[in-house]
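ok so I'm stuck.
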Amino acid sequence: MHKIILLIFCGIYMAKCAEHPSWYPENVNEIKKRCAEENNLTPDFGNILTYEQLANNTNVHAAYLCAAKGFHFYSDDEGLNVDRMIYFFFKTSTKCIRRKAKECVETHKEVISIGEMIFKLHYCILELFKAPETEN
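replied:
not stuck anymore, here's the structure
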């Protein structure tokens, strides 16, 4: 009986580990905390600052860039991987919002600071989830 229970728990654990793609980091909370602290921010800065305070703060932009690199959806060599970004933030298939996410990329692609661009893309895509579904 104990062996069966152990096998069930092992199966659940293996399924849980297989939920995320191979590029997905295991230490998400550590990365968030490190990037915030490296940029003189509290780990919960996104919950305590308004959008305007976040959008106009270069430390926030730097923390977003740091996190994007740590979360493997941005690299200096390959740039931004929008599919990975969408999956990372929203844990969903990119197919349902890929087209609209591309509109966000087009809107914000001229932003000079990569960290600021990633921040603005994140909030633009967040707005897609808040908006009612429309057929275009």
